[in-house]
Amino acid sequence: MSITVSEVIADTLIKAGAKRCYGIVGDTINHFTNAISKTSLEWINVRHEEVGACEAYMTRQLAVCAGTCGPGSLHFVNGIFESHRNGSPVVLIASNVDSSEEGMGFPQELDQTKIYDQCSVFCQRINHPSQARRIVAQAAQAALTHQGVVMVVVNGDIFKNKIEDDIAWSVHQPQPLIRPNDADLNTLAGMIHSAKRITIYAGIGARESHDQLVALADKIKAPIAHSSRSKEFVEPNNPFNVGMTGILGNLAGMQAMDDCDLLLCLGSDFAYTQFYSKKAQIVQVDTQAKHLGRRTPINLGLVGDVANTIGALLPLLEQRSDDSHLNNALEQWHKDKKEYAGKARHESELIHPQYLTQLLSDKADRNAIFTADGGSPMVWLLRHLEATGERRFLTSLLHGTMANAYPQALGIANAYPHRQVIAMCGDGGLTMLMGDLLTLVQEQIPVKLLVFNNESLGFVEMEQRVEGLLDNYTSLHNPNFASLAEQIGLQGWQVDTPERLPDTMQAWLDHKGPALLEVKVNRMELVMPPKIEANQVVSTALFGVKAVLNGRSDEVISLIRDNFIK
Questions:
Q1: In Å, how far are 10, 251, 274, 455 from 248, measured between CA atoms?
Q2: Which three-class secondary structure state does DSSP give residue 235?
């Protein structure tokens, strides 16, 4: 019996594990959405397509979104880039005008493959109805095995075509074991034996290697620094953890990497060359050979899964007794944590974002899932939320999206309906895609929105001031977010004094449906790097001079009081 191409696509995606499809219905995908309505695939009607591309990071299972021709499919672009760079298996079904009109400059026609080829691991068109199951199965397989976005273009009329669909194309997910060969492992063991001060730097590629990392660190007495993205996997229950490096990191992580004579980069593709050791030998282990040595010069590059590589390496190593390098790093890490705790204390009528985030960490569930907008909310998440081993974190560290937190939380809450999902939103990020607050209401998705309202693009403001510039065009004229939430059917609270915050936060967290908590936080809060360089002090002082000359001396006083004295 013949079935439509729409039915074939939906069936193939369901068999590949997809449970939801996000988008906005209309014109060229109407036949596809009609087919979806007769299946187990749930349609989530978003208000802006960008919001619909953000589910799959946590589950690592297939998520689907579908766009109409022209602007509908085009609106997905930023969400698709975000998901692709996060390694999320997403299928975008992008429709185009009818085949008979293609190439004729028809309204809304565009070449989707040229746009999405740069942010996908598979980007193909269904040129003939008989290709439907074969191409969609290939796309789903590519998304799941390469952990990235795939895109399939379908002309509007092809969705309606009927085919026999008599060849059983299906999706396969092999799970190979990958490790370096014995000769390379022996070379690495020799380098470890010869080194005096070894530091492990664990990236997102070590996400499933916690116990192996701890065993290796114990055997060679090495501190473990980690990337921002791997915080949730590496930090918990890890006596060798010394935090992060980079501009968002802490001094212990930076010093552990800088003071070693052998740096083991395991599953890490950290992009910022200036934070790697200038004097150590560097070994990099990654499943992708193309990643080896692209961020900093290395002495040995090995292709392998981190857990499998450590498992094969450990029997080749002798137990090390000298733990002086490790102890120095751990001592600094304890100081760093004490400093973080100090900044999170409530000491005035201002609500410092560090205090707000620490309170959230204390009150949220031990298995809560957190997202944070790019900018300062992302920093507070990384520095002040406790990683328990059950909690999950997602920020826009690779793409730098400003409005990622609650779109990601929306998809995550659909995938994990029985877990607490909290979006840490900047006021700028929330207002950029505010329309999909209505999606939370309409679909009753129980996301908890925490709005850091400092009435500015705070991270940009900090960047400008550290450069010695007057902050320009960063001020925001915001509504009362709590009242706005109430108007559209969300439960909303607003807090502007520290005394009211604990009880109000608890009420917000306890609310059963979607809810918004707006907190007026201190605007004059610099995101301080782990080590303040002389040029940064000079540049900040230069801002102070310019601000005074422009009649803004009160801001200089606030900046000094809130960041250098408190």
A1: 42, 10, 14, 22
A2: coil
